[in-house]
Amino acid sequence: MTFLAATNSTFSGVHDFFNSGTWLVIRNLAIFFVVVFWAACAYWVYKDARRRIEDQVLIATATMLGVVLPFVGAIIYMLFRPPEYLEDVRERELEIRAMEERLSLRDLHCPVCRAEVDSTFLVCPVCTTRLKQSCTNCQQPLEALWQVCPYCETPVESTGIELPALEARPRRRRRTAE
What we know:
Elements: H1 2-18, H2 21-52, H3 56-68, H4 72-80, H5 86-104, E1 107-109, E2 116-117, E3 133-134, E4 141-142, E5 167-169
Antiparallel strand pairs: 1-2, 1-5, 3-4
Helix pairs in contact: 2-3, 2-4, 3-4
């Protein structure tokens, strides 16, 4: 009987704790924090989906996944979400477009004196370095790899003179005072 009485007194202390007001406060706070964390996870899924996905149906589906499956839905969304924000994708596309435009409008420079030259120049106007060969028939400037003149269809004769390659140099940016 003494063993039963000792066990009964131990469990009666535990029983008294779980029936006390302290336990009710701890339980209610724990439930409150779990519900707040669940709502915060669902809200985070919604906000993150709006920043990463354009399709409204997919945003709603991701949000419902975060709401219906507490905590697990947010993890599933994190596994299948797009890797980049829409803003980053648009910014990268703009940068690529700007770089392509810069490359198409690049300034050509003489390889000897670095003076700016036009793509139609045969010689550099500053140092008189021969930049391109001219067509023997129509006198139009020819590119080094052309086999025939595109203007008059005259075959290009190799002169044996190797012409220097025109160098492209990026435009200089002005420094702004900070």
